[in-house]
Amino acid sequence: MAHGGEVLEFEEYVRTRQDALLRSARRLVPDPVDAQDLLQTALVRTYGRWDGIADKRLADAYLRRVMINTRTEWWRARKLEEVPTEQLPESTVDDSTEQHADRALLMDVMKVLAPKQRSVVVLRHWEQMSTEETAAALGMSAGTVKSTLHRALARLREELESRDREELVAGALDRREERERCAA
After folding, report:
1. Which of 53, 114, 143, 163 has the fewest Cβ atoms nearer than 10 Å?
2. Phi, psi for residue 60 in degrees, rounded to 5
3. pLDDT by residue (tens digit) across 61-86?
4. pTM (2 decimals)?
């Protein structure tokens, strides 16, 4: 049972770390509403164990682990009902729009990864954790982190190349149709 001081300590932690934790959640699940739900669920689960976290400097890592486990539970419960989205909207020349399109593409491409692969990529590249920190957060060996990351990045590269090829083919077909229309 949490005491008054621990409740305040937890509330203070949430107040100061909420934005960073929500960013972590957004990297684990692309939908903003799901990310908010993921963070809230993780916070509720962590609150019950708050006094068990002796070193509060590890609270972020603990919470990320809870978010990853929760996301994996949800993923298993849905049994991969996700379907790929249609083509991304055309981006304008505006830099921020292009950045958003790049981020949207990346989040979309990340969906091809298994949850464990996605978690490793998020922690290593977005959270910029070391291999050892990632291994500790995910409860796996450093070697498993390295091999999982290698396979995940290869899969992402493959997916991006496949999408590039599809775009090239679509562009060539559009040009051919245009030429046929002009010739008619």
Report:
1. 143
2. -60, -45
3. 889 888 988 888 887 776 555 555 55
4. 0.47
